[in-house]
């Protein structure tokens, strides 16, 4: 596999939806979380690629696409906070350019990435089901989990509760219950409530 920098940044242009001004900000376009684990916590706490308008101070998550790499498991995810105009063409281009990765996925909703990262911290707290399985079984579990994250109807509810939790602290408990029920369907095991605000 080619050597890819652990992290890549760039300067991008943004439009403030609050005051209408244009501004530039530095964002991350490539992050290898196996080498920069603090990025996972930033994603979990919704602090990754935050841009701030220098005029009015309004902050939001950048809608610029980026690559989420986990080199340790050979996973590359192209993350699009806002869906591209032609997703099929984007996928063909990325697979052509980065086809040497064992696993390439595409997320078109930040909620999907948030759940994947939550899943990582869940295993760090309770232990990983991969401990007693073969490498092939480990890959099958990963593919099943990502497929559920991308297709399970429960993700609509999780996304709704995630957005509500920004403004209504009471919604956070409902969010945790929803995402951990999804983990149960991934693995068949449950341990609720490990993550609280301020983790």
Which features characterize this protein?
199 residues; alpha/beta; 2 domains; five-stranded mixed beta sheet; two-stranded antiparallel ribbon; 41% helix; 21% strand
Calculate Rg over CA atoms. Answer: 17 Å
Strand content: 15-25%
Q: What characteristic shape results from the CA principal axes?
A: globular
Mean pLDDT score: 86
Oligomer state equals single chain
- Which runs of at least 5 residues are low in confidence (pLDDT < 50)? 192-199
Structural class: alpha/beta
Task: Provide a descriptive summary of the structure in words.
- There is one protein chain.
- This protein is of the alpha/beta class.
- It has two domains: 1-108, no CATH class; 111-199, no CATH class.
- Helices cover 41% and strands 21% of the residues.
- The protein is built from six helices and seven strands.
- The strands form two sheets. Strands 1-2-5-6-7 form a five-stranded mixed sheet, sandwiched between helices.
- A hairpin with a 6-residue loop joins strand 1 (7-15) and strand 2.
- The chain is globular.
